[in-house]
Amino acid sequence: MADSVLIEGLVVETVVGVYDWERDVTQALVVDLEMSWDNRIPGASDDVTDALDYASVSECVEHCLKELKPKLLEHGAEVLAEKLQREFGIGWLRLTLRKPGAVPAARSVGVCIERTACKGVPGNA
Ligand SMILES: Nc1nc2c(c(=O)[nH]1)N=C([C@H](O)[C@@H](O)CO)CN2
């Protein structure tokens, strides 16, 4: 099963960064997500409750990053991936977190992680 649900270019304004000055301002983070989901079920039922609702996931991403105020992108990505997998029952995801403007000579910098939930662990898919 290779189906997925996508979110691309989700912009979240939050406190992020390791330097003192970065703790006093907000900066934009850009989130890309690919999340495994069996789309045959909502494909047949035409019912959003069978789908991985990308609007709900987007709200969760925004809320999580605004509350977390991570220093490192790595920490933001790790906490966010774990929360999404637990709350939405997502088996596998690829999450990219970009910080445009952090390195002026680069279009963007960021991190990308892939995580698979461990079956049998309470709360995991
Ligand atoms: N691998 C990382 N390197 C750096 C990060 C980060 O989150 N992950 N962060 C910074 C600073 O916050 C920088 O973005 C300020 O411009 C430096 N390196």
From TrEMBL:
| Keywords (A to Z) from UniProt | Folate biosynthesis, Lyase
Q: What is its EC number?
A: 4.1.2.25
Catalytic activity annotated for this protein?
7,8-dihydroneopterin = 6-hydroxymethyl-7,8-dihydropterin + glycolaldehyde
Pathway listed for it is: Cofactor biosynthesis; tetrahydrofolate biosynthesis; 2-amino-4-hydroxy-6-hydroxymethyl-7,8-dihydropteridine diphosphate from 7,8-dihydroneopterin triphosphate: step 3/4
Native organism is Marinobacter xiaoshiensis
Q: Where is the Dihydroneopterin aldolase/epimerase domain?
A: 5-115
- The record's gene field reads folB
Biological role: Catalyzes the conversion of 7,8-dihydroneopterin to 6-hydroxymethyl-7,8-dihydropterin.
Which Pfam families would you find in this protein's record? FolB
Note the InterPro entries from the entry. Answer: Dihydroneopterin_aldolase, FolB_dom, GTP-CH-I_C/QueF
Q: What is this protein called?
A: 7,8-dihydroneopterin aldolase
**UniProt lineage:** Bacteria, Pseudomonadati, Pseudomonadota, Gammaproteobacteria, Pseudomonadales
Protein family membership: Belongs to the DHNA family.
